[in-house]
Amino acid sequence: MLNLAISRPHRKRSTRAVLKQARAFRSPAAGSRRRRHGEAYLHRPKRSFRKSRPAGNGSRAPYALIAVCCAFLFFVASIIWYANRGVEITLNGESTTVRVGETVEQLIDDQELADGLKAGNLLAVDDSVLKKGGGDAYSVELNGSTLAIGDVASTKLSGGEKLKVSDGADIYEAHDVTASDIEPTLSMTGDGPVQYVKTWGVKGRSEIWTGKESGRRADRGVVKQPVNCEVECVSVKPDNGRKCVALTFNEGPSAHTRQMLDILEQQGAKATFFLTGEGIEANPDAAKAIADSGNEIGSNSYAFERLSKLKGDALRSQLSRGFDAIESATGEKCALLRAPYASFSAQNWADSMDMVSAMVGWNIDSGDWLLKGAKSVTDTVIGSVQPGSIIFLTDNSSVSAQTAASLPALIDGLKAQGYELLTLSDLVATDKELAAGLDLSQVSKPEDAVLPRVPAEQGRK
């Protein structure tokens, strides 16, 4: 066995190594305890392996914490950089970089822009100089508009602004103001059947100043010009010559109103009914039937009387009672008016334009009230009709029977000529220019508008 062990390797071995190997072969007990390579690792207690895992995780924890802290610090640094980044503006015609969010006042102070500029003067209320250089230290123009000195401390720059800093402006001494309103006036233009407020009146103002330092008193005149009111009277001109007209009935409702509604429905036509408040109170169901049928309702005032003879509260009472009667019977608000006899003066408008969307007359009178028969009514209308016509018919107790009898032939005649029969609101809608400034369903009064006065030279017509 010794010779066999010595012959295995073909390399020189030390004497000590040979003897050690020989002893191992001579000692069976020792040989039995000798383990193969790696056996100690495989037979070690399992708990020693498990205990090593927490030690490994614990050793990585500080690195994870450091990474989180670094990310947080980078995030904070990014925010600080973004909040303080530089942006480009144009200052007095030249490009420059400023800190984003910097106020105009900070910019002026930091760059000493006020140095070398000429301050404005302090003026008395009569424009005389109280103190040279007592005005604003500088003037600021931002994006083409003057920036009030009181706003420079709060106006922040975000980039892209055009800023101009120049000599200061004069300012007035502290003063008391006595102001007087300038009432707008009313004018009526045009001659069409549709009257409406084209331009609402807005008050102007004049001022008298009394200086607190100088004690002087100065009339500063008109400091705000009034906007005068204009009521325009126009005809409806349907776009592209569209052939459409509006049938309108006065003084309803009557005993024949429902018959007229049935005829309109059978013929596929629509119309507008102007009702008196008294008539509605006597026959509320008829008013409701008009609304439910999809036809339009306007007011003929409360009582059928000439409104141009009324003014002020008396006029407003007639109008409000008429509108209220419509709302009570139909549940719908109304602002559309046809004054009896289409008599509505400039003074009427001045007294009540906040109640009336439009006062609509007519440009074709059917003449039915002359009681010449149904054929006469049809011939009169057909002989005068044109696109945009507003046709007058009567629905009172004296004339409504004849009106109802003439209605089928009248509608047939209009349709034969290619006309559509619309409500007034739908007729106005065919004229885009007119519709842009007129809504028959409501009054469109701006918040700062006021009722105007009628100039003496215009009279009360």
Automatic annotation (TrEMBL):
Q: Name one GO biological process term.
A: carbohydrate metabolic process
Report keywords, A-Z.
Hydrolase, Membrane, Metal-binding, Transmembrane, Transmembrane helix
Gene Ontology cellular component list: membrane
The record's GO molecular-function terms, alphabetically, read: hydrolase activity, acting on carbon-nitrogen (but not peptide) bonds; metal ion binding
Gene3D superfamilies found in the cross-reference section? Glycoside hydrolase/deacetylase
- Pfam families membership: Polysacc_deac_1
Name of the featured protein: Polysaccharide deacetylase
State the organism named in the record: Coriobacterium glomerans (strain ATCC 49209 / DSM 20642 / JCM 10262 / PW2)
